[in-house]
Every structure is written in C-alpha cells, then in structure tokens.
Amino acid sequence: MTTAAPASPAAPPFGRALCAMITPFTGSGALDLDGAQRLADRLVGEGCDGLVLSGTTGESPTTSDAEKSELIRAVREAVGERASIVAGVGTFDTRHTVELALAAEKAGADALLVVAPYYSKPPQDAVEAHFREVADAAGLPLALYDIPGRTGTRIEPETVIRLAEHPRIVAVKDCSYDFLGAQKVLSRTELAYYAGCDEHNLALYAVGGTGYISTVANVVPSQLRAVLDAFEAGDTPVSARLQQRATPLIELMMAAGLPGAVTAKAVLNELGLPAGPVRTPLRPAGREAVAGLLAAYEELVTG
Predict the structure, then answer these.
(1) Residue 159 is labelled as binding a ligand
(2) Percent of the chain with pLDDT over 70
(3) How confident is the model at residue 10 (pLDDT cuts 50, 70, 90)?
(4) pLDDT band for position 82 (50/70/90)?
(5) Cβ–Cβ under 8 Å, residues 18 and 211
(6) Site positions for Part of a proton relay during catalysis, renumbered to this chain (predicted)?
(7) Which residue numbers are catalytic?
(8) DSSP string spanning the chain?
(9) Is CB count within 10 Å lower at the N or C end of the chain?
(10) Residues with Cβ within 8 Å of residue 10, at least 6 apart in sequence
(11) pTM
C-alpha cells in the first residue's frame, strides 16, 4: 500500500521574508527617494523577497498621499521584479483607503496591506464591510493587518475566516498576539499568514505561517532570513538558535518603549545607511537607547 505524498505548500503570495521598510527622510524632513532606493536595493540584496512600504514602520500617518505614490515608484525602479512591493494603504476612512489603494495600484505596487480601521472602533460587521469595499475597488491582492494594540480594533478570527472567501483577500499580517486565533484561521482557510511581531517569526512559520513582515529586518535582513532558511532545510535546532540569537535585538527594537520606526532609524543612521529623522510626533532615540541598540546589533552580527 502506498501513501500519497503530502501536498506541497502554496507559493507565498508576496514572498516569505518581507521587510516593513522605514521611509527615509532628508535632514530637513523631506522624502528621501534616493535613500529609499539605496536602502531597498540593500534589503533585497541581503535576503528580503518583499518590501512593505508606508506601513507602521514607514511612518504612514505622517506621509502625504503623493509621497506614498512617489515612494512606490522609486522603490519599484530600484528593485524591479526582484521583490514584491506591498503598499500600506489602510486608514480609519474607507473612502480614503480606497483612494490610496487605487493610487498604489497605479504607482506599481504588487499588493496592498490594509490595517483595521482605527480610532472609531467599528463593530465587526463594519470592519468586514470596510475590507470588502477596499478589496472590491482595487485589482490587487490584499493582506489584512491585525494589530489591535495600535488600532484599538481587533479583526476577530471569525471575521478573518469570512473575509478569506473574497478572492483578493489572500493574506494576514498578524500582530494580534493571539497565537491560538492565528492557528484557528490557518486550519480553516488558505490565507497566507505573516508574523508581524519578530518574536513570532519562527513560531508562526512552524505551524504553517508563510513568513514575516519584519521591522527588525531593516537592520539585519540576512540574519532573520537565515531563521526561515534553516527551518526550510529541516534543521529546526539551528533555526531555533538563530531566532534566539536575534531575540535581544528584537526586544530592544520592538519592546523597549520606543516605536520600531524610531529604533530602526537609530541603528541605520549609526551605520551610515539611509534613514534620516523621524517625523513628529515621533522623536529620535536618546543616546543611551542608541548605545544599547548598537551593542545588541554588534553582538548579533559578529557573535
């Protein structure tokens, strides 16, 4: 009696190792398109097969609609077809989100990242209708972005399961910290699940996730990619050790009281890479925080 081989996993819709890219600014605070191109080229060259632009780490609340489109066009020119470009277009206004989605499609994005509508705390039926309207309006595949700690609104697992029926809703960026909920959706849908919290990169991948959308990848793209590569190669102990080695930097960048945009730019600026200042109301990291970040970075890349 022969046993059928297990089905091959579906190809990841946007890649596996995605960076939630910072948006470089000049010293005066203007959009630095040359810097964005240089940073994007470096990230792709060091293992990122997808870039998320104008997400949380990209300081999307403080960039204009025109800047968002300019950024997509510049990064597309820099990376060509070597990496997917996922455009963050989510806002608390459905109409504005649709406008940004259409503009991103026109500018050359491959996909959309749409965060749950924030501040107004709509109920789940309204959340679902919001995502369906955006997905209906644009011709690009869409990833739901579940980050209730920032939005104040959860995309409940049952809502995600219903939304998975839409042909253009194909993925989730999961920052819910609900590992059981993520596994519930994975078991009942074919959605691609991306870890949005770097401490979950390996754990979510191990239970059927697709990969990650990482802030920490701005500074250590190859080290995070190595975690997935080792797991793919069947070497779980090595992948676990690599994830553990990255943990001190992950903690300082993502859980030490400063937003990821601030910590990522602090390290990139110290390394002489494109970043520049953050836009207010964010403020730059202090010297003590920068010193700690650099020490953790050096330990990871040289240890």
Answers:
(1) no
(2) 97
(3) low
(4) very high
(5) yes
(6) 56, 119
(7) 145, 173
(8) ---PPPPPPPPPSS-SEEEE----B-TTS-B-HHHHHHHHHHHHHTT-SEEEESSTTTTGGGS-HHHHHHHHHHHHHHHTTSSEEEEE---S-HHHHHHHHHHHHHHT-SEEEEEPP-SS---HHHHHHHHHHHHHH-SS-EEEEE-HHHHS----HHHHHHHTTSTTEEEEEE-S--HHHHHHHHHH---EEEESSGGGHHHHHHTT--EEEESGGGT-HHHHHHHHHHHHTT-HHHHHHHHHHHHHHHHHHHSSSS-HHHHHHHHHHHTT-S--PPPTT--PPPHHHHHHHHHHHHHHHH-
(9) N
(10) 190, 192
(11) 0.95
Locate tokens 């990139």: which residue?
A: 268
Known binder of ligand: residue 57?
yes
Instruction: Give the residue carrying structure tokens 């903690």.
Output: 251
Residue 170 is encoded by which pair of tokens? 């194909």
The sign of the torsion formed by the CA atoms of 92, 93, 96, 100 equals positive
Quote the tokens at residue 205: 């991948």
